[in-house]
Amino acid sequence: MLATYKNYQFDLSKPLDISTPLHTGQKQINCYYAPPFRTEPVVMGNFIGDTEKGGLLNYKNVFLNPHGNGTHTECVAHISNKKVTINQTLQQFHFLAQLITVQPKISDNNDAIIFAAQLENVIEKDIEAIVIRTLPNTIEKLSKNYSGTNPPYMHHDVAKILCEKN
What we know:
- The chain has 2 helices and 11 strands, in the order E-E-E-E-E-E-H-E-E-E-E-E-H.
- The protein has 166 residues and is mainly beta.
């Protein structure tokens, strides 16, 4: 299915998945000491929501901490006292996005920081969203436990640049 937007053509039947998939078990991504992602079958009387345990269908409870298990979209809810969700904030759901790959700078105290100067000259005109990929970008990121570590973060001046670029 082809779609045209701002002189770009996209094949919506061939999306690119940039998420970190969730899975149960030992080797799963985690941060902020969140409980691990897990699922369990719904059990009510004789009903078991698991075909492997004799149930007619799979019907699972999902236990998830969106900030600590897997990928998530940053939104105002991270820093606001108001109870807002991303679907209350966004009025548009498809964006012309630019992928920017950046090697965070290591500060004197060993923080890995993304600075505005690394982004301001590479953001293309008329871009509506930015996806920032940090290096190194290894396969280990899919199962890394970031709890107690200091993962890369953006300097507050990055927010100014993003606002200026809209």
